[in-house]
Amino acid sequence: MAVRYERQFRGLLLAGAVPLLLALAACGGGKSKPAGASVPEPPAASDVEVHLPAVPVGWQTDRSVWAAHSEYQGQAGLATLHADYAYAKAITGQGITIGFIDTGLDATHSEFSDKTIALNDRSGLESANQAQLKHGTAVASVALGARGHGSGMHGVAFDANPAMWSLHLEDGFLTIHDTVLTKATKALEGVGARIINQSWGYNSTLNPDLIDSQRAFLRQSYGNFLTQMRQGKAIHVWAAGNEAAAQVSVSAAWPIIFPELAGYAIAVAALDGDGTIGRQTNHCGAARNHCLAAPGGVAAGASAYTRVARAGGGYRFGYGTSYAAPFVSGVLALMMQAYGDQLSLPEYTARLLGTANKTGIYADASIYGQGLVDVQAALAPYGETHIPLPAGGVAGPSETKITDGDLPREMLDRLRQEKIIIIDALDTPFETSLISPQSALSQMTAARWLPPQAASAEPAQHPFLARLMAPNGDIVSSASWQVLPWQPSREKGRPAPSAIGFAARRPLAHQAGHLQLAWVAEQESLLASAGEGG
């Protein structure tokens, strides 16, 4: 039988005289399996090759090798989230700290023993025995348990580091109040945690008809904690709760009750091994705009799904939204390693929610919110890509790379080293190769639509031309370049595209003819090519 950790707060009642209970979200799960439901296949790889961060020399880039590892297979939820996509791109959570407000951490466990423990505050504990550390150790292992140091599993962001603020657990209930939460949050933020995992919550759920009463209660009870969250220094990832209710726990509903917290709080419902909602997990309900689903597991035995580190050593199985939340915290850590300071915290939240899988059963927002969290989608360009232009604005490309065709060797060798920046539909920047091999050379024709002064412009003063003035490494005088107006040729059956752009040309050393480089930013595509002329 599942153990429930809860504490009744006497005298504190939500409207409707519903007893206010505080519970770890460890239990729950279960399953309700629609006929034919299954976890969808991984989405097709993006057309744009991205390397965020740069892939080290010798790194294993075959995702099937990562997926075949025994520890990866030991945590089935990693495959559900397509985490192998991140690992093959050298995105493992390196340099990221995940904060936890939980029951404590067994830092001697092999899943954590070689990590940098940014914080392990036990000031509120009377003892740190295995019973006290059980829940927090398990939750942390799901998010960032090490790879290659244990034997049973590894975490989502296995190279990330933990920071733990321990909550006192006594007789099955937690000691939580405004001072503790405020102090814990400040301490975790102080050691660099921009993600704070909250795998606990009230078992009283959000009541959309009683928002004013619930707002009054939370403001009175957690005023300082609210003030700290409003500062926007971390994303709080909350367990949705395990009451099999149509709404999330009131403690996972912050952005509904306090709209200014949108972007800084996420609620997570738990999935079973078959990819459907767990029978005991709360549904996203009215919190659908800031809620999504992640693996969580079922109760026990052969049906067990989520493997977790056991305080004192070894492993066990866990289930419920307590373990769904750290899956999401781990994904955020992967994203933060990839994108760094290029995104604000609300932009991270928007990207996580916006790229979640909303197909099939996950289209039911009342249950799954924004859908099933998807690592691959979160780390690849989303929607249509655009190219930012030097003078401002963007081009909306159908192609985002130069095509090589039969380029002269000196130009091709230089261009192979070049990168361009594109932005996707969520305004996230990606770096991609300039050259697209084995493609037809885009044909360019002369035009007269540029202002007359463009013909006398100095290539050295242009950010693109200046980098290409010496493709063979020699210094080339800008006087040897001639800037010409160009536009792409009309394709048969299609109108000439509306475009702005420039081209440049210089004589080829020791060869007849000349080298021409053309850039044209169209309304529909960005074309660039180079070739020999007469």
Strand segment tally: 26
User: Based on helices, strands and strand pairing, what is the structural class?
Assistant: alpha/beta
> What percent strand?
15-25%
Count of DSSP-assigned helices: 15
Radius of gyration: 27 Å
Largest sheet: 7 strands, parallel
N-C termini distance = 84 Å
Helix content: 10-25%
Low-confidence stretches: 1-21, 26-46, 396-407, 436-460, 462-492, 494-534
Strand adjacency order, main sheet: 4-5-3-8-10-11-12
Name the average pLDDT: 74
List the helices and strands and how they pair.
Layout: E1 6-14, E2 18-24, H1 63-67, H2 70-74, H3 77-81, H4 84-88, E3 97-102, E4 119-121, H5 130-144, E5 161-166, E6 169-170, E7 173-174, H6 178-190, E8 195-198, E9 200-202, H7 211-221, H8 223-230, E10 235-239, H9 254-257, E11 265-271, E12 291-295, E13 306-309, E14 315-318, H10 321-339, H11 345-354, H12 365-368, H13 375-379, E15 387-388, E16 394-395, E17 402-403, H14 409-415, E18 419-423, E19 429-433, E20 435-436, E21 444-446, H15 463-467, E22 482-484, E23 486-488, E24 499-507, E25 514-522, E26 526-533
Parallel strand pairs: 3-5, 3-8, 4-5, 8-10, 10-11, 11-12, 17-20
Antiparallel strand pairs: 1-2, 2-9, 6-7, 13-14, 15-16, 18-19, 21-23, 22-24, 24-25, 25-26
